[in-house]
Amino acid sequence: MNSPGSFYLPAASSTMAPEVDALLQFIVVASSILFAIVVFGSFYFAVRYRRRKGSTFTDGKDHNVRLEIVWTVIPSILAFIVFFWGFNSYLKMNIAPANAIEVKTTAQKWFWQFTYANGAGSTNELVVPVGVPVKLLMSSKDVIHSFYVPNFRMKMDVLPNRYSLTWFEATQTGEYDLFCTEFCGTGHSSMLGKIKVVSDTEFRDFLNAGSALGTGQAPEAFGADLYKSKACFTCHTTDGTPGTGPTFKGVFSRSEAMSDGSTQLVDENYIRESILNPQAKIVSGFQPVMPTYQGIINNTEIDALVAYLKSLNTGQ
Amino acid sequence: MNTSSESNYLNASRGWKSWLFTLDHKRIAILYFFAIMFFFFVGGVLALLIRTELLSPKQVLVGAETYNQLFTLHGAIMIFLFIIPGIPAILGNFVLPLMIGAKDVAFPRLNLASWYVYMLGSLFALYSIVTGSVDTGWTFYTPYSTTTSGSVISMTLGVFILGFSSIFTGLNFIVTIHKLRAPGMTWYKMPLFAWGAYATSVIQILATPVLGITMILLILERAFGIGIFDPAMGGDPVLYQHFFWFYSHPAVYIMILPAMGIISEVISVFSHKKIFGYKAIAFSSLGIALVSFLVWGHHMFTSGQSELAAMIFSFLTFLVGIPSGIKMFNWMATMYKGSVSLESPMLYAMSFLFLFGIGGFTGIMLGALSVDVHLHDTYFVVAHFHYVMMGGTVMGFLAGLHYWWPKMWGRMYNEAWARITAVIIFIGFNLTFFTQFILGTKGMPRRYYTYMDQYQPLHAFSSVGSYIIGLGFTIMAVYLIHSLFRGKAAVKNPWGALTLEWTTSSPPVEHNFELQPVVVDGPYDYDRIRIENDQRIYKEVKMKSETETKVGL
């Protein structure tokens, strides 16, 4: 079920992928034959009947019913085969098996949030068991996004006003790229995630650990993890270069000029406000594009992030 | 052969007023030519900036926000200001009345008005660019376009205004074709370019109002907070996609049908061969125009629309593809046993066959539902529509521009350079865009400022190809401008064609013909007519064989 991919296709790692690839390859082969006949046929005639002397009269034959029927009917038959084949596999893509586990997927500028049935959650990393169908119930908090995993040959738009449904069954453990494919603004091309396909036991461990994240960790270390898992890094660097938002390097206890002309000391309360109500005070020179993390992040996690930002000051 | 001493439409009157207030369809075509070529140049420069930025996943020239504006402007300018008006407003305006033996279009004042409306619309677009620009993509999808900062209203208002220019032209062509054909020119003696222009005009008139209304609704939502598309105000963003594609899919045929008309002319003329399947080509244009209204949902297979809707749209998509395939076979059969001359217009027509062929077959892949799920919104789609729009429409436009250039200006361009350029553009185009098919099947999403390292070599390769295209167009600009000043004077009928525009002088006199032409021969009767020194020579009917035929009866 798992093909390694080719020079033009990524490895096929879901139950649907080989079916899509088979149809795609059928069209490539059939098209190449028809293309060779028509285009290279024309090129051949251009050379074979090239003009040798001045103007001459040419053959006046301008129709041939039998030939015209042939070149209408054969491509039509091929087109209908492709149509039914494509529709058949499209239906399978859209109807999730009854035994699928469900993961609530929330998209917003510019990260993915996954919530499992037991309350465990993750950001930008969807952990799923191998060989089990997974159904995604998806919605967006702002604009339209689209959930695309090339290895699974799956894609579904994520809309702000209704749920969209899709499903897949991974056939091979490993990590696969997740892209947003509906243009959603400045951070569109950084709205990346991973699908981590693991064994059944690893998946159960992940679910159990999900509700107890951060225990036994130093706050700075936990904050560093959150910086990655909550997708802060999409817009905020730690090396001093400005991204879509200000860099975190040396930001704590700095005085920043705000876009309304005032000056603001970056302290614990400003960081907390910027996470929960990011539009309140914008650092001068940046766009007010950050989404709120209200409901996505809890107090322990905010404490950890504050500790992490402080550690970035002392670390230098 | 020196025509400069004689009176023609270019020297009949002088001064800027004689141009800006002209009612002559040929002069209006020239006004359009310079305006549209300016925007083609701007759109092309934007394309090269985009490809340069994509040389590396890191920043090369600009940041993400500027990049998003670049690809939006490239798309919006190329679609609304170049490719939709391109062939009808320049070549259609110039050639169509000449082809059917008319003095002008039916409504010359409306024709001039369409140019002013076009200029007004383009000013709104330019105003948008200098006041914050747009970063929505040329499709202006809601709710992103409702909520983003930037100058969306003036850009969409520009698109709204440009629509009227398109409607004016379409209306003019339909009436002109119905009412102003020369005596003897029956519908089936009309050149196929006129059929293509007719089918195009039908779409322009029927589909453009829907785009206009959609743009107005979007403006109302942004300006006054009237919730139509934005769910935060109670609207539905997918409704916008339905409205938008209800125009914008037929618009694809506004772009390609006139190009197909040009290809029919050029292949027949440069093969000196009667066009194969005249009626099949003529009616397939009308068939495509009608079915094109019913396929818009194939842009939305992953939008969550119902499976039934997706099935119907997919089926109709294959249905609309078949007439295009039939045309390809007809063009091939036209060349069979012809007398083929590979001058530059024909080289562009051959490029068209090759590139539009690939564009068409990759359209079949995108029309197949399950395959589209994988390819939708990746570089595969970008490559597909560039093969259809640039490989199809622009190659058709270039074929027509080189074919009619002697008629428009009374000058010949340097043929050797024109052939070299055709080859350079063909090579550069394939390097640029075939690479993008592979990027797409490998999963590279479109509209990405930065990308994963595995896509870097293909992106760099594609960018190099785009520079070759840029080189080709630069050479073309040089030899075309050179021809205006230093080109050899053109004869009446340099290609030995049989349509009416070649029976008048090059460039034509102010009212097109010295005498009202009367049509006796068909437009493609190369089996019994040939041209020598601008004169028609008819094949002598052998009395002997005629007698034999009569005996046989």
Determine the strand fraction of chain A and express it as a percent band: 15-25%
CATH superfamily of chain B: Cytochrome c oxidase-like, subunit I domain
Oligomer: heterodimer
End-to-end Cα distance of chain B: 50 Å
Structural class designation of chain A: alpha+beta
Poorly predicted ranges of chain A (pLDDT <50, ≥5 residues)?
none
Sketch the topology of chain A as an H/E string, one letter per element. HHEEEEEEEEEEHHEEHH
| Arithmetic mean of pLDDT of chain B | 94
CATH topology grouping of the domain at 101-210 in chain A: Immunoglobulin-like
Pairing-aware structural class of the strands and helices of chain B?
mainly alpha
Mean pLDDT figure of chain A = 89
The biggest beta sheet of chain A reads:
5 strands, mixed
Element layout with pairings:
The complex is a heterodimer of chains A (316) and B (553).
Chain A (H helix, E strand, L loop, with lengths): L16 H32 L16 H30 L6 E8 L2 E5 L5 E3 L1 E5 L4 E7 L4 E5 L4 E5 L5 E5 L5 E7 L12 E6 L1 H11 L8 H11 L25 E3 L5 E3 L2 H9 L22 H16 L2
Parallel strand pairs in A: 1-5, 4-10
Antiparallel strand pairs in A: 1-2, 2-3, 5-8, 6-7, 6-9, 9-10, 11-12
Helix pairs in contact in A: 1-2, 4-6
Chain B lengths: L15 H5 L4 H29 L10 H36 L8 H23 L13 H4 L4 H28 L12 H33 L12 H35 L6 H14 L15 H29 L8 H24 L1 H7 L3 H31 L5 H27 L14 H31 L42 E4 L2 E4 L4 H10 L1
Antiparallel strand pairs in B: 1-2
Tell me what you see in this structure.
- The complex is a heterodimer of chains A (316) and B (553).
- Chain A has 316 residues and is of the alpha+beta class.
- Among the domains of chain A are: 101-210, Cupredoxins -  blue copper proteins (Immunoglobulin-like, Sandwich); 219-314, Cytochrome c-like domain (Cytochrome Bc1 Complex, Chain D, domain 2, Orthogonal Bundle).
- Helices cover 34% and strands 20% of the residues of chain A.
- Chain A contains 6 helices and 12 strands.
- In chain A, the strands form 3 sheets. A 5-stranded mixed beta sheet of chain A has the order 3-2-1-5-8, with no helix packed on it.
- A two-stranded antiparallel sheet of chain B has the order 1-2.
- Chain B has helices at residues 16-20, 25-53, 64-99, 108-130, 144-147, 152-179, 192-224, 237-271, 278-291, 307-335, 344-367, 369-375, 379-409, 415-441, 456-486, 543-552, and strands at residues 529-532, 535-538.
- The longest helix of chain B has 36 residues, at 64-99.
- By secondary structure, chain B is mostly helical.
- Mean pLDDT of chain B is 94; it is low at 546-553.
- The radius of gyration of chain B is 24 Å and the shape is globular.
- In chain B, a hairpin with a 2-residue loop joins strand 1 (529-532) and strand 2.
- At the A-B interface, helix 1, helix 2, strand 7 and strand 9 of A face helix 3, helix 8, helix 10, helix 11 and helix 12 of B.
